[in-house]
Amino acid sequence: MSQNLTFTIPPHLNEYNIPLSSFKAARPQWTNFVVGGLVFSRSSRDSHHKPSEKGEPRVLLLQRALTDSLPGYWEGPGGGCEETDETILTAAAREVVEESGLHVSRIVDLVGIEEWTKEKNGTRLFVAKLAFLVEVHEAHGDFGEEIVGTEGQTTVEVDGDTVQRWEDRVRVEPSEHSTFEWATEEQVRLSLEGKGKYKILDDEGRSLLKAFRMVAQ
Fold first, then answer.
1. What's the pLDDT score for residue 48?
2. What is the pTM of this model?
3. What is the pairing mode between strands 74-75 and 123-136?
4. Taking the CA of residue 170 as centre, how many other CA atoms within 13 Å lie in the half-sphere pointing to its CB?
5. Which of 74, 162, 177, 212 is the most buried (most CB within 10 A)?
6. From residue 49, how far is each of 1, 55, 148, 155, 198 by CA, in Å?
7. In the prediction, which pLDDT does 207 show?
C-alpha cells in the first residue's frame, strides 16, 4: 500500500508541525501519544446522482477486529505515534493510509484532545489522543478516483461510464479492522444514546459529533 504523505496544513496548525521529539518534550504531562484522522464524505448516496454531487455529510468509521481489544467497536482511523514519525501530523496521515488506504491531502483542523490513563507492566501511562479533521486525495480525484468497476465493488454509471465511488475504495487492515461504513451524524448520535447500530466509546463519539459541527460550518 502506498504511503504517500504529501499534505498541506493551514497556518494555525504550525504548532503541531514540529519534530515529534520536540512536540513530546513540550508536553511532559503525557507519556504516550495517539492520533486520529477523521475523513468525511459529502457525496450523494443516490445512485442516480454523479459522485461529485453534494449530499449529507458522512464520516468514515472502521469496525475493530474481533481479535483485537474492544472487539466490534467503531472508530475513525487512528493509532499510536511511532518513533519514525516526523511530526504529530505525519503520524495522523500515516495512520489514515495504513488503516483505510486513503491518502491525506490536507489536515484541516484539530478536533480535540482526549486524555486517559492506563497501566502497563506496573507503570501508569498518561495518554493523549489528538484527533484531526482531514481531507483525502481520493476525494479530489487524485490516485485515480474513477476506476472501471469490477465484481464486488460498488459502482455508479455517469454519462454512460461505470465508475467506482471514492468512498468505496477504503481498504481496511484485517488484523485491526473487519469492515468500514460511512455514518451520518444522526447515526452516530443515536449510537451514543444506545439506540443505533454502532458501538462507539463515549469520548470517540463526542469527537465525531464535534467534527460534524466543524464540517457544517
1. 40
2. 0.86
3. unpaired
4. 24
5. 74
6. 30, 10, 17, 12, 27
7. 98
Please give the grid coordinates belonging to residue 202.
463515549
Amino acid 163: pLDDT: 59
* Chunked mean pLDDT (size 10), the chain, 217 residues: 79 98 98 98 60 78 94 97 97 98 98 96 96 96 47 39 79 96 98 96 97 95
The Cα 27–Cα 47 span in angstroms is 48
pLDDT at position 30 is 98
Give me the CATH code for the 11-216 domain, please: 3.90.79.10
Grid cell digits, residue 101: 488506504
Mention every residue, 6+ apart, whose C-beta is less than 8 A from residue 178. Answer: 63, 64, 65, 66, 172
Tell me whether strands 155-158 and 161-164 are parallel, antiparallel or unpaired: antiparallel
Nearest to 180 by CA among 167, 199, 193: 167
CB-CB contact of 26 with 123 (8 Å): no
